[in-house]
Specification:
Layout lengths: L5 E7 L5 E2 L10 E6 L12 E6 L9 E10 L4 E11 L7 E9 L4 E11 L10 E3 L5 E3 L25 E3 L5 E3 L21 E10 L4 E10 L12 E9 L5 E13 L7 E12 L2 E10 L2 E9 L7 E8 L5 E9 L5 E9 L4 E11 L7 E9 L7 H15 L2 H17 L11 E9 L4 E11 L2 E6 L24 H7 L6 H4 L8 H9 L29 H8 L7 H22 L1
Antiparallel strand pairs: 1-2, 1-5, 3-4, 5-6, 7-8, 8-15, 9-10, 11-12, 13-14, 13-16, 16-17, 18-19, 19-22, 20-21, 20-23, 23-24, 25-26, 26-27
Helix pairs in contact: 2-7
């Protein structure tokens, strides 16, 4: 194969691949040197190549994994591929490269730069020499040492005490006493016999690339911050405070090595960035489902026990409504915190869990992660919808449907003689069953109305997102009370109206009376009745108190059962009509 058709590509430690220069050419990051029969331009059996790392892709003294791909460019196919571990070395005359690092040690940021894979700096290892007036030279260490090595004593201060000056390379002058005193007074330290002087500049930036601080290190044989023969690593305190705001902060740095006073640098480190984390962090989230049961787990790490944060985990249903919210205080009492919860949901679909960490005193989370899971009902989850069906079946069996039909006709007649609203106050409405995950049953109903100004609760409990001050209100009579908890628990296995409503402790007579007064035939309304007697508590006749009595005596809030709520809704028209007639 002709060498002109051979291509060699290498990648170092998984980095971007580079093409090596063909035989006899230079200038790229790597070049090929043939061995074997080099008299022709053909790669034949017994021939081989050495890959020269001209760009210090694998720095001297480091071990690197090299991936080598050999290609036949004329055929457009790969001939061979291999990978090897090698120890890097610097070719003769390599200028090396700069690497950088940043650390959030202590209270201020530290920037670091290293020179690897060679050096562009001269390393003579010798001091400069001082030339006497007669042309002889002496070692610089003999200058201003109190002993005349030059015939005329020009290497020492004036013997009569008169002023004697030393001229620096930039034309400035210093007193002779500052020569060879181990302190550089000239810009490039020539007063200390320095022959090669370099400056390393390191700059710290914020995430947007705005400079925050810059520092310089001098490098020379004597009297500088570092010596090019002994040092290839430099570290500086930037004076910039380490990040303190909770969350991730990105900072960047660059570096430049120059011969002091030169117009262009010898080596440059392009801007590199790194991220620093402060405060508690989300370590893991676990989100999965088994049928309509959704399980959520969250792990928060606070390794330095900073505290001062709150974790919130919110579960959203397929319509992005909030299903459940859990919070946990990260108070600095531990290095790790865990949340493990399960929630029953009513429908299949995609559910999402959002986990946020909020620093104390802040309004915006400093980190937020969202994961989603498709929830599918399995055979064991069908009982949820079956129980909802049972509740509505029980309501239907009560004869309520026929009563409502009569009520509708009666209401239509009544409203013909009632002054209508000048403008109906609502343009939309909806109702929603109130479901108990604990009991897997519907325990109430909420009725909501909307207009151009917002959404309101017409009847039912306080609901987030709905205002309580509806423009047109209802007068609602609560017919239940102290046995609310008993009634709720009983709904779990409800199959009849008696199962839904604890009729013994609920005075339902008023419902029938109010409907009858409105002109409704309630003969088909199968609501169990009680004798209406006041409750007693003696041992001989333990009659349970009515709901109103019990609620008044115990100071308890009434419980609104599904059947009573529906009755309240039907009474709305009667109440509205009665008020209009009373005003006439």
């Amino acid at each position: 194969m002709n060498w002109a058709a051979v291509g060699v590509r290498i990648s170092v430690d998984g980095g971007a691949p580079v093409m090596c220069s063909a035989l006899g050419t230079t200038g790229d990051m790597c070049t090929l040197v043939e061995f074997g029969d080099t008299s022709d331009q053909v790669w034949s059996v017994g021939d081989g190549v050495t890959i020269m790392d001209d760009g210090d892709l694998c720095p001297s003294g480091e071990w690197c994994y090299i991936e080598i791909t050999i290609m036949d460019n004329s055929m457009g196919k790969v001939i061979a591929y291999t990978g090897v571990y090698v120890e890097g070395f610097s070719p003769e005359g390599s200028t090396g490269k700069l690497t950088g690092d940043m650390h959030a040690w202590g209270e201020t940021m530290t920037v670091q730069t290293s020179l690897v894979g060679g050096t562009p700096m001269e390393e003579t290892g010798d001091w400069a020499e001082f030339t006497c007036n007669d042309g002889t030279t002496i070692d610089w260490m003999q200058v201003n040492d109190g002993s005349n090595e030059c015939m005329d004593g020009e290497d020492e201060a004036n013997s009569d005490g008169s002023e004697k000056l030393f001229t620096c390379n930039d034309g400035s002058t210093i007193d002779w006493s500052g020569v060879n005193d181990y302190t550089a007074d000239c810009t490039t330290a020539e007063d200390e016999g320095v022959q090669h002087h370099y400056t390393l500049q390191m700059t710290l930036y914020d995430e947007s690339g705005n400079p925050l601080a810059s520092s310089e290190e001098t490098i020379c044989e004597r009297g500088c911050d570092g010596n090019q023969e002994w040092t290839s690593f430099w570290s500086e305190d930037s004076g910039i405070s380490t990040p303190s705001t909770y969350g991730e902060t990105t900072m960047c740095m660059s570096a430049m090595l120059s011969e002091t006073g030169a117009a262009s640098p010898l080596l440059e480190l392009d801007m590199m960035c790194d991220s620093f984390w402060v405060g508690p962090s989300i370590q893991w989230t676990d989100f999965w489902s088994d049928g309509l049961e959704v399980y959520t787990g969250v792990g928060v790490g606070d390794w330095e026990e900073n505290g001062g944060a709150t974790m919130t985990a919110t579960l959203f249903d397929p319509s992005l409504n909030v299903v459940s919210t859990y919070t946990m205080a990260i108070d600095g009492s531990s290095e790790s915190y865990e949340l493990d919860e399960d929630t029953s949901v009513l429908e299949a679909g995609e559910y999402c869990l959002t986990v946020e960490l909020l620093a104390d005193g802040e309004s915006t989370p400093y980190i937020s992660e969202t994961s989603c899971e498709t929830v599918e009902a399995n055979d064991g989850a069908g009982d949820v919808s079956e129980r909802v069906e049972t509740v509505f079946s029980a309501i239907a069996e009560s004869g309520l449907e026929e009563v409502l039909e009569q009520f509708g006709m009666n209401l239509e007649d009544r409203l013909e003689t009632v002054e209508p609203f000048e403008e109906f106050p609502y343009n939309d409405g909806r109702w929603a069953p109130l479901w108990s995950n604990e009991h897997a049953a519907m325990v109430g109903v909420g009725v909501y109305v909307m207009n151009d100004d917002g959404a309101y609760t017409m009847a039912g409990p306080d609901t987030q997102g709905y205002m309580d001050d509806a423009p047109a209100k209802l007068s609602i009579r609560y017919l239940t009370g102290v046995a609310a908890n008993t009634a709720t628990n009983g709904m779990e296995e409800a199959t009849t109206i008696e199962d839904i409503v604890d009729v013994e402790n609920h005075d339902l007579d008023d419902i029938a009376e109010d409907l009858a007064e409105a002109g409704v035939d309630v003969s088909d309304l199968n609501l169990p009745s009680n004798d209406g007697s006041e409750g007693t508590t003696n041992d001989d006749n333990p009659t349970p108190p009515t709901a109103a009595e019990a609620a008044e005596d115990a100071g308890l809030l009434p419980f609104l059962s599904p059947i009573s709520m529906i009755a309240v809704i039907t009474l709305a028209g009667v109440v509205a009509g009665s008020r209009r007639e009373d005003e006439e």
